[in-house]
Amino acid sequence: MGGALYLEPRLGPRLGSLLESDRLLHTLADALGSPLGVVLPDQLAENVERFRSVYRGHHLAGQIFLAHKANRSSALLRRLAATGAGVDVASLGELQHALGCGFAPSLITATGPKDTRFLWLAARTGATVSLDSPAELDQLATLVRAHGLPRVPVLLRLSGFEGAGVKVLTRRSRFGTAVPELDTVLDTLERYADAVELTGVAYHLDTTSAAEKAVALEGCLLALEECRGRGLTPRAVDIGGGFGVSYLADRTQWERYTTELAQAVLGTRPPLTWGGHGYGLREDGGTLRGALGVYPAYRPVAGERYLDDLLSRPATAFGGRPLATLLLEHLYDLHTEPGRALLDQCGVTLARVLETRDVGTGPLWVRLAATAGDIGLEEHGILMDPVLLPREPGPTTGPVETYLFGSLCLESDLITRRTVYLPRRPAPGDLLAFVNTAGYCMDFHATQAQRQPVARKVAAWQDRAGWRWCLDEEYWPITPPGGQQ
Ligand SMILES: *Cc1c(COP(=O)(O)O)cnc(C)c1O
């Protein structure tokens, strides 16, 4: 077999402790069904504190806004409200949810393309509107004037930045106003001064490249200068999200896996995937072509450390001085909108093993009471092993090769196309814990296909007596979080 190719998840102390409470997790899945999402609100508060420490390290003011779209949980949002951090909402439903979870409108930013109802509620309550396009500015100003709404704080979302002298172009975005149109939009903003107030500029780039983000941040600083040259007084730069998560515990496992995957695609070792899937790689006359289209699951720098790194980068148009220094000197506020990174280690998805089937000499077939959409990792290109939580204790037999199938009657319902090595043979009734799913995986793709109910979600926390839990919607950041006293 050539040795097991594990991709072990990185487990922080809190998530690690929860997984050790495997009796509790079995009881929960028995009572509430499989799949089951478990979220850890206190971890989110800890992650906010880590981002804040980077702000403090650079002496920067400004707010951290969680990108709500990454998870629907009420418990997470309510716990976040209690930290004083903000939230970035991208739909009418998310805005209503944020208001109901206790966020003051001054701590809510509405981003993405918006319809009239969404704009109205944002304007009515006083949330900040991150303008997605010049047309949206027209729509918002018309709405404010027609309904006598209070003047709306707005951020101008920009895209299409170009580095000064360096060959770094930020990737094309569907969202925001292109930098060359800045002048025209500022003219319009001045005309609408009775309806909107420009408080800052913004970008969000869906990339792992810090070089691209540095170009965009520098572009925002230049745009702010232009605004101030006109007598406008914006003072915030909102740099969006995309700080990333390192999912795996071990760099060598990741490097070995990707090397062996390439070998498998070339046919110089046995396949590592269902049907020889190459995750973007293919063989062409003995040569490897294509590019590995998965998330870089092991990342040496991610989350708040990525932010720290970005802020320390030099700004070419400003004599090579660090971006953080420039923000500080101008007394600009720095806003961030992390989604995935703030939800790092904040959740786990449990799935029950329904059936195992030996199929010749190939990997063991394992069918789970969950669909690929419920687990979500594959959809997001995250290659990471689940943790096996056996129902009955037993000896560790050594690695077992498996294919993990979902519960839908669809050939394509594979939890992952990867051959997964488990440390022992799973049995019906065991649980697989897919960890670190709170960011995008847990409920982003959940459907009611085949009339199966959407997974339930619980919030879990620790007190002196150990792990406690309640249904997600029953959680409030008070003592006890689920209790009615
Ligand atoms: C999705 C999104 C984010 C969060 O992105 P992550 O990669 O999860 O950090 C932030 N801002 C905006 C505008 C978004 O659309």
From TrEMBL:
Q: Which cofactor does it need?
A: pyridoxal 5'-phosphate
One Pfam family this chain carries?
A: Orn_Arg_deC_N
- SUPFAM superfamilies in the record: Alanine racemase C-terminal domain-like (SSF50621), PLP-binding barrel (SSF51419)
Write down what this protein is called: Y4yA family PLP-dependent enzyme
Residues covered by the Orn/DAP/Arg decarboxylase 2 N-terminal domain: 46-265
Q: Which organism is it from?
A: Streptomyces milbemycinicus
**What Gene3D superfamilies does this protein map onto?**
Alanine racemase, Lyase, Ornithine Decarboxylase, Chain A, domain 1
Q: Which UniProt keywords apply?
A: Pyridoxal phosphate
